[in-house]
Amino acid sequence: MLDEVMERLKPADGEVYCDATFGAGGYTRAILDAANCTVLALDRDPGSIKRAETLAAGSYGQRLRPIHGRFGNMQSLVETHTELRAPCLDGIVFDVGVSSMQIDDAMRGFSYRFDGPLDMRMNSAGDAATAADLVNGLDAESLARIITTFGGEKHARRIARAVEAARVTKPILRTQQLTDIVLEAHHCSLRIEVNDELGELRQGLIAAEHLLKPGGRLVAVTFHSLEERAVKDFLYRCSGRRPVTGKTHDRAQRKKGRSRKEQAAMEASSIELMEESWMADSEHHRALSSTKDAEAEEGGASFTLVERRVVRPSSTEADRNSRSKSACLRAAIRTHAPPLAPRM
Question: Where is this region: Disordered (predicted)?
Answer without folding.
Answer: 242-265, 282-344
